[in-house]
Amino acid sequence: MSQPARLTCDEVRDLAPLFVVGALDPDEAAAVREHLADCALPHPELLELGEAATALLATVEPTVPAPALKARVIAAAESDLVSGRHPASPAAVSSAESAAPPRPTSMAAADSQVFAPPVDLAVERERRRSRLGWLVAAAAVIAVVVLGASNLALRRDLDQAQAYQQGVDQALALAAQPGSVTALLRADGGTATGFAVIGADGTTRITMRGLPATTGSQVYTAWAIEGDASPVAVGDFTVAADGLATASGTSPSAAPGSVVAVTLEPAPGATAPTGPIVASGTTSAPAG
Amino acid sequence: MSDAGPDRAAVPSAPSVASDEELVAGLAAGRTESLDLLYERYASMAFGIARRITGDDALAEDVVQDAFLGAWRSAERYVAGRGSVKTWLLSIVHHRAIDAIRRRRPVSELPEEADGARTPEPLTFPDVWGEVAGRLDAEAVRGALDGLPWPQREALELAYFGGLSQTEIAARTGVPLGTVKSRVRLALIGMRRGLGLAVSGPLDEADTEGSP
Question: Which of B23, B27, B32, B169 is most worth mutating to test chain A (most A CB atoms within 10 A of its CB)?
Fold first, then answer.
């Protein structure tokens, strides 16, 4: 690791155009950032040139991505909450609070402050190895947290989180297969969220978060509804206090546009929904 | 308007009224519903940018996913005064896309590095440049771009959309490094002028093509 040379303000001004378009060599760019982090003087030229560069983004024609991409994004975000990769997830709060970088305290500081990487680069590299590579990273985070857990209750919570994570992994693996459709499951006014994946052969995997715990013989039942046809039961599952659930079953088909709904039923084995719908969503076509 | 009766009260109010800033606050708080709405708002622009840069739909999808997850994880670090949510988010997309094509290039084209010892320029950070860019009209920006002399526009686009370094641009266009630098500078100043934006004193100096 070579130490980048210290730059003067004039040198930074000179490098600014190439800096804002990302065309500097890595060492030079690092030196510019280092200067900006320390420099007491404003560098309005960076803002001016940077604005002109960013304006180019407006020239790009918007293009609607495949509907399944949204399911991938939301599913990955859900997984973050469980694995502790999101700062607001329970597992991350304690470590994130001490590790969070100080926020800028004045506009002058904010102007010269360069944003920190939003994502850890080492983990990021791992993630890039495959389209579902982020799962590897998430699993690694869980493993590390489990190793560090000294408290039995925490350990049990983590085991549950890990089971959920495995369910998410399986659902995403299914989503990556040709012919699979996905539905984001949302509650009307409730807190439950999740997603369902139906494979080409009807294999269905559901993961949900934020569900009220079941009691007694209560179960949640997942239903597949195609067009005007009657709902077909996919499977039952129970939920503990953590509100997490993964379930699997079989749907009649993997047609895009069918509805997946989850109801709360008084007992397992219902053949028609009787309880309230706690979450539902419509399946979208697979990517590509 | 026969359907505007009392039944309307049963319809939940449209969630899309949330401001971008409120959605980012939702991201920071771990609400995937907010991410859902932000995605609905900007996925098409994000995908358009990623596709323009990578020229590859599958890679562009990965970039968009990476970018939205990056925003999701770092939303608490979004600083409102530094730029609009739109600029912030699309800057992340841009950086991730450039990052992706640089990683994909043959190793021989990358600067020498020990494997894993140092990554290519970590463009995963977003330098966010004010909110002006987020409010600009696409036609106005295209007009400003069309107004640039071709060599300046070429240098600008090779860098910004092509992810080429100054050295690579020099090699590609057959001009010295100093010329690349001044072309990019003049292109950016020309963009500001074309958009009717102020150009401050220091940038205005030495307004020439630079030494050959």
Answer: B32
- In this prediction the pTM is 0.66
Helix boundaries (H) for B78-204: 85-104, 132-135, 138-146, 150-160, 166-173, 177-194, 201-204
Q: Give the pair of three-digit tokens for residue B13.
A: 């109010």
| Cβ contact, residue pair A56, B137, below 8 Å | no
Neighbours of A94 (CB within 10 A): 10
For residue A151, pLDDT beyond 50: no
Report the residue of A3, A15, A21, A132 to disrupt the B interface, i.e. the one with the largest count of B CBs within 10 Å: A21
8-state DSSP, A117: P
Q: Return the axis-axis angle of helices B57-74 and B20-28, rounded to nearest 10°.
A: 80
Q: Is A104 on the interface with B (CB under 8 A)?
A: yes
CA–CA distance, A37 with A148 (Å, rounded to integer): 34
- What are the chain A neighbours of B52 within 8 Å (beta carbons)? 60-61
- The larger pLDDT score, comparing residue A107 to residue B44, is at B44
Length of chain A: 288
